[in-house]
Amino acid sequence: MSDTILAVENVSKRFAGRIALDDVSIDVARGSITGVIGPNGSGKSTLFNIIAGTLRPDEGRVLVGARDITRASAAEICALGVARTFQISRLFAEMTVLENLVAVARGRDDRAAIALALELLDFLEISGIADHWGAELSYGQRKLVEIARALMLQPRIMLLDEPFAGINPRLQNRIVEHLRALCARGITVFFIDHEMRIVLSECDLVYVLAEGRLIARGDTQSVRNDERVLQAYF
Amino acid sequence: MSKVSPLVIAAAAGFVALVLPFVGSDYAVSFSIQLLIFLVLAYSWNWIGGYAGYTHFGQVGFFGIGAYVGSILISRWEVPWYFAAIAAAFAGALTAVVLGGAMLRLKGPFFAIGMFGLARVLEAFALAFDSITGGGTGIYLKPVSDLRPLYYGVAAMAAIMLLLTWKLDNSRLGLKLLAIREDENAAESLGIRTTRLKIGTFVASSVAPAAMGTFYAVYLGFIDPPTAFAPNLELTTIAMVLLGGMGTVLGPLCGALVLSVVNEVLWANYPQIYLACVGVIILLAVLYMPRGIVNLCMKSGWLAIGRPLFRRLAAREEQTAS
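Above: the input entities. Below: the structure tokens describing the complete assembly.
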């Protein structure tokens, strides 16, 4: 497909003989919101870590556009416009929110970096906490700051690792609105989550993993009615 | 309570340092040279240990290399001590460039102990190659008659280290180093080139200790392996940074001042038990002030919270926006 921005091709990964991912292939279309769901231990985070370059696959390859990034380092992948957030917040605790953002900014200009950071905090409606220490933030605030920090890299693709886990529905809806706004800016959103309500209402395309295998792929309607998904989940 | 600007403190310290050789006794100058050498060592260690979070016990290795390179240049070729110190600084940096890539693959306690081992290996070399280093006998240098030039040299170096640390603390480079300290893998995933930064910081933090090695050798008029690579030097340096506050601009200054003075007072009055007293003081400081004097001052409002540059810039941005 010509407008595929991120492709995972036949990727397998084993940990000490245990299969974490088995021949998984995924396409993410440019400017889409694509979701991966699956029960605990289904290989979602492994998949993310392979795409982001923190793990290497045993087999298969990962492409960003036409570029093979299977062996690239995390920083190189980041430089290609792939930014990520983490399942368990990994903000720099001893820095303020503003410093967390400015630390990862590209380019040499401090003022431009700060202007972008303030704009993003404004966009995510968290300007009020710019001076708070990373360690002081609530769970929901951390999630939003992580998204802002990833956006500082001005990415083409956002990889969000469980952005909706453990936060209240009101904040979930706000994050969904922000993700939609990002898509409108041409950013591709690829995320994994347990939150069925959002995955099955907001995604353009959904992949379902179970025990390291891809068991379903399709739009929200077809996934919702898929026999294997119902079996794995309910 | 009004906050004391770090600049005011630095300016006061600078003034005292400048006039001291003219008003102070020889003893005061001699004591100050030792204090300032420790100050430079503490600032250097603070870059890699405090900011980048790569604490280690091997800085004295660079100090020793510097002591020997400088002493050999001075004793064999009669190079002036300041040129010898510059050559020593290069030697320290070169050693760090060669070792950095390999050593910085290690993390946490492995890096800390690995560096300690490295200093011991260098000490063994100094002992073994006696045709160059004089082995256990060491190298004797012509004693300096006037300590003042040496004093100003070390003082200038300390001022430069303080200024550079202030610049670092208010720069994005400083934030990137802190990011490595906080969570290196996350930093790497967010596009920070951690390997390059770590090696760069490691090399930068080896330059001044090597130069100080030469200063120390000239000050003592003598150098041998146990003096050049003394673990005591290393531990005192680290204790100073811990006491003052790791990863802060004024931490090494506060730590070096307090610990040097306490050391000297105890040594002069209670020579038999002074080391035990210093040990207890460090123990209490770590237990009750784990973030150091500077962080305690920030918390209690006596000092402005660090890294103000970005906040000031942000405030200015917001003003222009509105």
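Note for the figure: Chain A has one domain: 4-89+156-233.
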